[in-house]
Q: What sequence folds into this?
């Protein structure tokens, strides 16, 4: 993916830093805002090369809308994950059948892959072990039958991706490209 | 007792329950991978519940609104960083050679690493370029 211009990347960094500053101080006093803006300009100038490659294109309305819609979706998946953990921990027979499975992703950008790895770690029964290009290696606490009995490597990855990465990819594909 | 205080108390209670599950998971699970699995998830949601609950509770008790905004910032920070630390720990455990539990059914990562090693040995120039 092509890099955005320097000014666009710098402005995006300043906007994000300033948006973090406001809840950190939790005050709308003019003096606080002015100083926060100066700090955002300074820190942004020092750090924008490592922060973003796409600049203001990240603030496309469709991306922001999907990012906001992703929050409740993700929180719900997280609550389900914890109820799942509660069930496995409290059940006397301890119903676990762990294994490391192989998934493939369609995401291309690094922030997208990071977001997907984080989402996988916090959702039911899975934790990301390693990411290598398009390949995700995921420790699954209960490997289902169709993944376990897959004939070939491709079939295995297909079934595993269907269950683990697909639900998030439809959001992250739009948010991070 | 108003609604905000009650919500906050309920959230803190739920968060503590998940903290308890997290420690119980550490005791009951058989190997390091499953322990990371249970402890990461429960501890993250437990922290979220306790932090946001504290914010609500403080506002309900008559403290300033800044409480809830700032606890939300801390909660977001935890939510974004906790899975990364879990990933780093579990990956380090695997690279160090800690074995999976004997009941584990499949290990595709081992196969992948082996395959990669073989291709590097067969074509060393390509391997260096990577």
A:
């Amino acid at each position: 993916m092509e890099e955005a211009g320097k000014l666009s990347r710098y402005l995006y960094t300043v906007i994000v830093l300033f948006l973090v500053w406001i809840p950190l101080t939790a005050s709308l006093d003019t003096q606080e805002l002015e100083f926060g803006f100066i700090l955002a300009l300074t820190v942004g100038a020092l750090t924008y090369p490592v922060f973003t490659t796409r600049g203001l294109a990240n603030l496309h309305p469709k991306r922001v809308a999907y990012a906001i819609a992703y929050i409740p979706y993700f929180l719900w998946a997280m609550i389900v994950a914890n109820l799942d953990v509660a069930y496995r921990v409290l059940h006397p027979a301890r119903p676990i059948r762990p294994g490391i499975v192989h998934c493939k992703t369609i995401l291309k950008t690094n922030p997208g892959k990071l977001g997907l790895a984080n989402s996988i770690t916090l959702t039911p029964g899975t934790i990301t072990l390693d990411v290598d290009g398009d390949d995700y290696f995921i420790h699954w606490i209960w490997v289902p039958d169709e993944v376990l009995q897959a004939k070939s490597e491709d079939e295995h990855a297909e079934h595993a991706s269907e269950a683990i990465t697909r639900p998030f990819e439809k959001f992250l594909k739009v948010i991070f490209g | 007792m108003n609604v905000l205080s009650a919500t906050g108390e309920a959230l803190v209670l739920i968060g503590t329950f998940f903290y308890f599950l997290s420690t119980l998971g550490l005791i009951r699970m058989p190997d390091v991978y499953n322990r990371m699995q249970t402890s990461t998830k429960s501890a993250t949601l437990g922290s979220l519940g306790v932090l946001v609950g504290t914010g609500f509770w403080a506002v309900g008790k008559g403290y300033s609104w800044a409480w809830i905004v700032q606890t939300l910032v801390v909660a977001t920070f935890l939510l974004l960083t906790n899975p990364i630390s879990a990933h780093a720990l579990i990956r380090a455990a695997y690279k160090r050679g800690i074995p999976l539990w004997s009941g584990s059914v499949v290990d595709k990562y081992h196969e992948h690493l082996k395959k990669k090693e073989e291709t590097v040995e067969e074509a060393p120039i390509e391997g260096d370029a990577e």
Q: What stands out?
A: The two ends of chain A are 9 Å apart (CA to CA). Residues 23 and 152 of chain A are 51 Å apart (CA to CA). The mean pLDDT of chain A is 83.
